Amino acid sequence: MKRTNVRRAVSLLVLAATCQGIQPAFAYDEKKISESSSVSLTIYNQNFGLVRDTRSVELANGINHVRFEDVAAKIDPTSVSFTSLTAPNSVVVREQNYQYDLIEPTTILSKSVGKDVRIKNYLAGGGVSEISGTLINSPRTYVSDAEGRVSSTYSGLVVKTGNGVILNPQGQVELSELPAGLVPKPSLLWKLETDKAGSHKTEIAYQTAGLNWKCDYVAVINNDDTKTDLTSWVTLDNQSGASYRDAALKLLAGDVHRVTAPQPYLAKGMMFRGGAPAESQFTEQSFAEYHLYTMAGKTDVKDHETKQLSLFNAAQVPTKKQFVFDANGQFYPGGWSPQGQSKKINVKLEMENSEKNNLGMPMPKGKVRVYKKDKDGALQFIGEDQIDHTPRDEKVRLYIGDAFDVVGERKQMNVQRISDRVTRVQMEISLRNHKKEPITVTAVERAYGQWKIINSSQEYKKKDSTTFEFDVKVAPDSETKVTYEIEMRY
User: Fold this and answer.
1) d(CA 58, CA 197)
2) Which among 42, 240, 369, 419 could disulfide-bond with 250, CB atoms 3.0 to 4.6 Å apart, if both were Cys?
3) Mean pLDDT of 369-386
4) In the predicted model, is pLDDT for residue 315 greater than 70?
5) Ramachandran sector of residue 148 (left: φ over 0; alpha: ψ -120 to 50; beta: rest)
6) What's the rounded mean pLDDT across residues 202-213?
7) The pairing of beta strand 244-253 with beta strand 38-44
8) Cα–Cα distance for residue pair 391/363, rounded to 1 Å
9) In the chain, which segments carry CATH 2.60.40?
10) pLDDT tens digits, one per residue of 439-451
11) Any idea what the Cα angle at residue 411 is, between residues 407 and 416, rounded to 5°?
12) CB 167, CB 155: distance < 8 Å
């Protein structure tokens, strides 16, 4: 039987059983916790979140069994904290159970193996074909290996009748009752002991997978590439298996260390803002070694929903456009490698994340999409790049593409072996500008071992022990060459 047929067949069973009432998994009376009075979320950009839910429950002296049914399906049960805010020292959690054996077709059938089953097949002519027997295999078979790991495979129905065994019979499956122990949705069940009867205001806190956020930026650069309007958007993605109504929201940016373990599976646009930048609806604060963004007001974070919120807007951010020629030639004893001698010119944008530049808020990692208006005033996409977490007063550099009208070429003109350990090389860099305005190209060069520049046609800047750069001015429709001789000792 196909999976869709199984779900369709058992749906009537589930409906009938629900109407008859579901038998509790335990014999004792359970108290259900009240509706949430407040909920707050801290969402990490590592696909998990911390939920804090405040609710009330009536407790009697002694032992109480309390059920909480609004828990996220992807909860980490080991992270749950239950606290009485009314009388913290008067309520003790003696036991906690996480129940996630849900009322769904495959679970019902797998729990009904060995029980009587009836299958009705409604024929095209109006008749009904009926099969009765014992279910001896369910659509989902669970097996344990030698190390106790459980896996499942889809194998189909097997029914034993008085006339033999039938494999994958077609039709509507009917069972006389629901198996015991199934729950309509994932639940936490607590065994609490208290010496103070009455209404208790409680806080339930837990971690759950399936909550994630990321930051995206929209940058609109002006006509002469000197100013940028920057909008930051937060995208929330809730796949946790629960909805959070009227939630206070905090976002934590940073790389929080977590112990690597298999993720538990516990249950079955482009936007622009016009005009002057509005005041941010998030406030930022340093927290531990991370940054925390707190949203003003509250919002609904629904299950299986993607929500976008504006993080901040900044107008007229000073921007520097850079042309970078990095042929990345690598020196080997005997000369430079022939690879990478010709390469396109990278186009980069640089901004400083400072208050004087209308920024100054720590910027979470994310994708920056860059746009520019054409002569008709229409925004056109011109490139994108990914930035890492960027503290205030640090520079943001975006590689947005390669220049069409600027060409770089790099040649090895001569190699001279001075000794077994010393090599002298002459290099030539040609930069051709086919644009109608002058530009400056930064030519990045690398050397290894003990090196020194013997002579060069232009001044250079040493960046570190292996890198030096030439800032080369190139006039419109012209070519500029840089030559230098370098000696390297190994």
Assistant:
1) 8
2) 42
3) 95
4) yes
5) left
6) 94
7) parallel
8) 6
9) 320-353+395-489
10) 999 999 998 889 9
11) 165
12) no
8 Å CB contact between 75 and 53:
no
- What amino acid occupies position 336? W
Kindly report the pTM of this predicted structure. Answer: 0.70
- The label of the residue with tokens 């001075």 reads 418
Dihedral sign, Cα of residue 150, residue 155, residue 161, residue 163: negative
- Angstrom distance (rounded) from CA 296 to CA 285: 13
Q: Please name the residues in contact with 148: beta carbons below 8 A apart, sequence gap of 6 or more.
A: none
Fill in the amino acid letter for 68.
F
| Weakest mean pLDDT among 86-100, 375-389, 475-489 | 86-100
What type of residue is 218? V
Residue pLDDT, tens place only, 456-482: 999 999 999 999 999 999 999 999 999
Q: Supply 482's token pair.
A: 């840089």
**320-353+395-489 CATH fold:** Immunoglobulin-like (2.60.40)
Mean pLDDT of the chain: 82
- Amino acid 268: pLDDT: 35
Which two structure tokens, joined as six digits, stand for 189? 């069940």
Give residue 21's pLDDT band: very low, low, confident or very high (50, 70, 90): very low
Residues counted in the chain: 490
Going by pLDDT thresholds of 50, 70 and 90, the confidence category of residue 25 is very low
Rounded Cα–Cα distance for residues 58 and 459 (Å): 80
Cβ-Cβ contacts under 8 Å for 130 (sequence gap 6 or more)? 118, 119, 120, 121
- Per-residue pLDDT at 216 exceeds 80: yes
CA atoms 82, 86, 92, 96: torsion sign: negative
- For residues 180 and 23, is the Cβ–Cβ distance under 8 A? yes
Contacts 24+ apart (CB under 8 A), 33-40: 33/57, 33/66, 33/67, 33/68, 33/202, 33/204, 36/70, 36/245, 37/201, 38/246, 38/248, 39/244, 39/245, 39/246, 39/247, 39/248, 40/247, 40/248, 40/249, 40/250
Cβ–Cβ under 8 Å, residues 151 and 142: yes
Q: What does the buried/exposed string (b/e) look like for 174-200 if buried means 16 or more CB atoms within 10 Å of the residue's CB?
A: bbeebbeebbeebbbbbbbebeeeeeb
* Distance between first and last Cα of the chain: 72
Contacts of 288 (CB under 8 A, 6+ apart): none
Phi, psi of 235 (to 5 degrees): -110, 120
C-alpha span between 487 and 421 (Å, rounded): 11
Residues whose CB falls within 8 Å of the CB of residue 284, separated by 6 or more in sequence, listed in order = 291, 292, 293, 294, 361, 362
